[in-house]
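## Example record

The block below lists the input lines for one assembly entry, exactly as stored, with component labels intact.
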Amino acid sequence: DAMVIQNPRYQVTQFGKPVTLSCSQTLNHNVMYWYQQKSSQAPKLLFHYYDKDFNNEADTPDNFQSRRPNTSFCFLDIRSPGLGDAAMYLCATSRGAQETQYFGPGTRLLVL
Amino acid sequence: KQEVTQIPAALSVPEGENLVLNCSFTDSAIYNLQWFRQDPGKGLTSLLLIQSSQREQTSGRLNASLDKSSGRSTLYIAASQPGDSATYLCAVSGGGSNYKLTFGKGTLLTVNP
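Predicted structure tokens for the full assembly:
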């Protein structure tokens, strides 16, 4: 089945130790998104790619970076995770702008 | 800045009851509105998308309405079942080239057998 896949599902890292989260899609969608969702909060958009064009939200910390080496894959890099970065990280895709977004199962990040 | 509010924050109903979840947004210049379902510890599943030019969308037991001018949407769930228990989030998309979805915090629905 076409889908959005996130790996790993759970990630434990140490304070300040770089971590990379992975997202892949079989939908061949042009747009890929990364959201951060903290407990009982609304998902918050960090950035998105339209094809290779990267778009960062104004309030996304510099500590967060992203790479999209090809249509299928997108990575979220957290350069120096702090305790406040512990959250669920959700990847989503859409065919184009303003179209239905399809979400992956998320990666829960724990920072010790 | 767009803000999305969902009321109530939590709702508990007996099985079989019809129910309505509410969503309001501050900026009526939206392109579309989506309703999502989120199970505990999981990602989001898209339920319905309503374009700004539409008044409602239906999928099975779900019906979503949109009143863009008043900044309101409702999600109606008919004949609720325990399997409907989840958090329901609404999100709005801005006009133009704005890809951003602005989410509400969600309504936690519990349907009791």
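The first strand of chain A starts at residue 4 and ends at 7. Chain A has a mean pLDDT of 93.
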